[in-house]
Specification:
alpha+beta; two-stranded antiparallel ribbon; 4 helices
Length: about 110
C-alpha cells in the first residue's frame, strides 16, 4: 500500500520505504553540479563522432511502486539511467550528421517519445 505525506501510525519493527513524490531529473552531461551521469558518446549513421548532453524528468507512478520495488528495491534510478542511455544512443545513431542541423526538432521529438 502506498501512503502519501502526513502522519501515519507504524508499529514497532516496521518502517516506511520512501520514494520521491516529486519530479526527478536525470541529466547526461558535464555540468558537475547538476549531472548525475556522464555525457553520451556515440556515432552518427555515417560514423561521425557525436557527443550529447541530455536531461529529462520523470515522476514515479504510485500505482506501480509495488512492481518497481519488487524489481529493483530502492535502486531504480540506476536502471532508469541505463535504459535511457541505451534508448537515446540507439535513437541518436539513426540519423546522419547534417540532419542534426537541419532536422533538430524532428530528432528531439523522436527522442522525447522514447
Amino acid at each position: 500500500q502506498v501512503y502519501h505525506g502526513g502522519t501515519h501510525l507504524v508499529g514497532f519493527w516496521n518502517k516506511f520505504i520512501v520514494f520521491p513524490a516529486t519530479v526527478q531529473t536525470i541529466e547526461f552531461g558535464e555540468r558537475s553540479r547538476y549531472s548525475n551521469a556522464p555525457m553520451l558518446h556515440t556515432r552518427t549513421k555515417e560514423g561521425l563522432g557525436l557527443h550529447l548532453s541530455v536531461s529529462f524528468q520523470y515522476k514515479l507512478d504510485p500505482e506501480h511502486l509495488h512492481d518497481l520495488f519488487a524489481l529493483t528495491t530502492v535502486n531504480y534510478e540506476g536502471l532508469y539511467r541505463r535504459i535511457a542511455r541505451d534508448q537515446l544512443l540507439e535513437a541518436a545513431s539513426e540519423y546522419e550528421g547534417p540532419q542534426y542541423w537541419l532536422e533538430r526538432h524532428t530528432i528531439g521529438d523522436h527522442m522525447r517519445r522514447l
